[in-house]
Fold this sequence. Notes:
Rossmann fold; globular
Amino acid sequence: MAKTVFGEVNVTNSxxxxxxxxxxxxxxxxxxxxxHTVNQLLTDIEQSQQKLCTTNxxxxxxxxxxxxxxxxxxxxxxxxxxxxxxxxxxxxTPEIEHETHQIFRDQTTKRISMVDCSNVATAKHHDxxxxxxxxxFYTRFGYALAHN
Length: 148
């Protein structure tokens, strides 16, 4: 069923999860506190044939974090996986970026990520029911944290 978001009629959602940067980071940095959980979650999602997607902003943020926390080569390995993979990358359109700015403006605490705000705007825009992340920020918008 189509629904109206940001004044536009959108097509029916075909994704179950929008993947956030922290999940990708845990997938590539084995010493990350969430590495084991991420591997199990992704296995469970694949076995249940649920569909993942992410955004171009998440890809950019993830490559930057991997380069800073681990190595430039790890960031390149991530970009190679994304380039060869099957996870759709949703663009942050001008409409989604406008909503991202509004979500960011509405926050009252420090250290709010524009990418996190863009994930909320994207999930709303595409009617994606879940954001796969360990970031408590998303609970403000009714999204559950990733767990296993």
